Amino acid sequence: MIQGHRDGHGFVVRDDGETDLYLPPNEMRAVLHKDRVRARIVRHDRKGRPEGRVTEILERPPQPIIGRLLHESGVWLVAPEDKRYGQDVLVPKGAIGTAKPGQVVVVELTEPPSLYGQPVGRVKEVLGEIDDPGMEIEIAVRKYGVPHDFSEACIAMSRSLPDKVRPADRKHRVDLTDVPLVTIDGEDARDFDDAVYCEPAKVGRGKGWRLLVAIADVSHYVETGNAIDVDAYERATSVYFPRRVIPMLPEKLSNGLCSLNPEVERLCMVCDMLITSTGEIQAYQFYPAVMWSHARFTYTEVAAILANTRGPEAQRRKDRVQDLLNLSDVYRALLLARNARGAIDFETTETQIVCDENGRIEKIVPRTRNDAHRLIEEAMLAANVCSADFIQQGKHPGLFRVHEGPTPEKKDILRAYLKAMGVGLSVSDDPMPAEFQKISAAVRERPDAQQIQTMLLRSMQQAIYTPINSGHFGLAYDAYTHFTSPIRRYPDLLVHRVIKAILAKGHYQLPTLPTPGEAHEKLARRLAARVAAPGQKPKKAVVPPTREVQAWEAAGLHCSANERRADEASRDVEAWLKCKYMREHLGEEYSGVVSAATSFGIFVTLDQLYVEGLVHITELGGEYFKFDEARQELRGERTGIRYAIGSRVRVQVSRVDLDGRRIDFRLVREGEELELRAMRDKGVVPAGEGKAAAKRESRKAGRSGSAAGASIHALKTAVKKASGNKGKGTRKSRR
User: Of the candidates 64, 83, 682, 712, which lies 20 to 30 Å from 634 by C-alpha distance?
Assistant: First the structure.
């Protein structure tokens, strides 16, 4: 598949997983981002990387292009918002519809690009003006192909659903309406898919707890293959943006029938567990039930009650205080078990964008995690583990949440990094999660602890959904799945259906989809790649999966891919908002921390704003910087100054590119101090002299130093000149 790049070149992402082929700009003229092609290798560069040439276009998927309609020199064209589409789309005058110049439109291609001609299209939809509130979301959902309109059949079916639990729905269910289950969520939560209750219990010969986790029974209303199910599968997940959610299910379900709202009857699936004083799950059972939520708590409220059981929050909820204390006790026990099995528990900072009524950022604040968050998290983990075990014990295919350990390549990079940083610990050939946790604990007091933790995290693989269980590395579970959020995740809905099938001593069959879709195509290519090439013997016998397992694999691929799609769309919107926000702060200075070091510069995250931007290598000073891959840092050859993850710097906001979702910084003050300190360490500048001496040495190096230093200085000057002319040239120069 073709993957375009905003600079005009592109890559062929190979089906066999081998190294991508580089395509120069001239090869990208006749193809588009996401085209499927056949290509051949024509040469290798100095580093041995292959360069390709497209020989055939196999498939051109129907993909609308979003961009701004422009009218230049009598010609109508659409400049794609996604710069991976390297060419503007020509639009005949009769095909612009009601669109006006400058508006954001969706264009449908009518003629593909060629070596000697641009693509041609027609305006399919007018989204509005670029500064309209919420425009960034309208662009993102179309840019990433996020389904955002329910089908008419889905809407009609949701309207036919009841408004409340009917007497017939209660049949064959356990009545838990007298059990004081409660929900604990954030202040801004609109749907409540989980409720909890805990009480002391005798477990074996010792003391323990009975923990109930009740999850909204979405599968009762969303039957396999019906109109709501088809739409839910296509979405696979809810997508969360600042101020807007695109739900997986219609609102009547997500905020109504399947939301465990307080003081109303709701259908649920329950994981009923007995937990020992050391946090071991001694026994569990699943059953369908009907419940009545006795309270809707917020995390902040629960944390306040647990911190002071005589405070005003506790007085308002005195009937539930003991239940919350029981939940806190079982959480402490589960935490003991978590530590005993060596699960990885890194503290990371998540942020929340707070917007005004017009959708503009008011502030960006860190999300604080308290014991109430962790309490619910551990309860949900326990229910998910029981779900995975129940499916395995029932010998029924299903989707597991699999997180594998580091690849051999990532292990080698991590080992080299830990050795270079002087960490006295490393990872084994077959590492366990406890090894990562041990390293994190050992470096906790070091000034570069954040840097080391970041590298530990980056060495791990992404979690996926698959019917082939190989455990969850990060959580240190032999088997793990997702059971607790069927309102917003399709894999959880599938797990509920499988559990119900096992309880009924039946078998759940995945629906046969009318159109296989991209996930099935990827699966077919993956299966084909497992077959040895002609004349070669396979390294080991490969047992072909059954058709049922293939169907589950395709479902897992689909859900995993759409999870990534949702994350990318959310990040794109956040990046847009942050760029718009930072345009109002051009020229201002902030303190920050280096969050990544690359061969072309350093990324810095600002302390107060939690916004990340790039300090290009040409802005680091008039010398040659070399990227040290082992240490993940840039080091100046003349001064020895180093920029690594965790380094503190002070920067100025120098440029914001809204289309490219890019913020550029330049170093100020701290950069000079670091350079001076490094030059003193190397003896270039005497210990008693200050910045003036350092600048003299820098000027000497600029006049008579290395050619690399001079070239960097020249490039820096050229970049500044180009930035100064931004927006003043022709359309061609702006591209």
Answer: 83
Within 359-481, strands assigned E span: 361-367, 400-402, 464-466
pLDDT, tens digit, 9 for 90 and up, residues 406-421:
988 899 889 988 988 8
Residue 606 and residue 598: Cα distance in Å, rounded? Answer: 18
Residue pLDDT, tens place only, 177-229: 999 999 999 988 888 999 999 999 999 889 999 999 999 999 999 999 999 99
Q: Is 193 left (phi over 0), alpha (psi -120 to 50) or beta?
A: alpha
Note the residue count of the chain.
735
Q: What count of other Cβ atoms lies within 10 Å of the Cβ of residue 458?
A: 15
What domains appear along the chain, each with residue ranges and CATH number? 2-59 (no CATH), 65-109+117-130 (2.40.50.700), 170-222+258-393 (no CATH), 405-460 (no CATH), 585-734 (2.40.50.140)
Q: How many CB atoms lie within 10 A of CB 14?
A: 15
Q: What is the pLDDT of residues 644-683, one digit of tens each?
A: 888 899 999 999 998 888 999 999 855 455 555 555 555 5
On the question of pLDDT at 24 being above 70, the answer is yes
Q: Which pLDDT score is estimated for 369? A: 86
Contact 715, 618 (CB under 8 A): yes
In the DSSP assignment, the letter for residue 251 is H
DSSP tag of 619: G
CB 115 within 8 A of CB 141: no
Angle at CA of residue 705, ends 699 and 710, nearest 5°: 80
Residue 26 is classified by DSSP as G
For residue 123, count CB atoms less than 10 angstroms from its CB and return exposed for 0-12, middle for 13-18, buried for 19 or more: buried
Q: Are 695 and 41 in contact, with CB atoms under 8 Å apart?
A: no
Q: Give the ranges where 244-298 is alpha helix by DSSP (H).
A: 251
Residues 500, 219: contact at Cβ < 8 Å? yes
Calpha distance 436→491 (Å, rounded)? 29
Q: The pTM is what?
A: 0.84
What would the two tokens of residue 17 be? 């997983």
Residue with tokens 């100020």: 668
Is residue 691's pLDDT more than 60?
Answer: no
Half-sphere exposure of 635 (CA within 13 A, CB side): 9
Contact 269, 172 (CB under 8 A): no
User: Cβ(8)–Cβ(28) under 8 Å?
Assistant: yes
CA distances from 236 to 219, 248, 494, 512 (A): 14, 7, 11, 16
Distance CA(499)–CA(176), nearest Å, equals 19
Query: Side-chain half-sphere of 109: how many Cα atoms within 13 Å?
Result: 19
Structure-block tokens of residue 601: 């510069």
What separation in angstroms does the CA of 123 have from each of 100, 104, 138, 279, 568?
Answer: 11, 10, 16, 60, 25
CA torsion sign for 704, 706, 709, 710 is: positive
What does the DSSP 8-state code read for residue 345? -
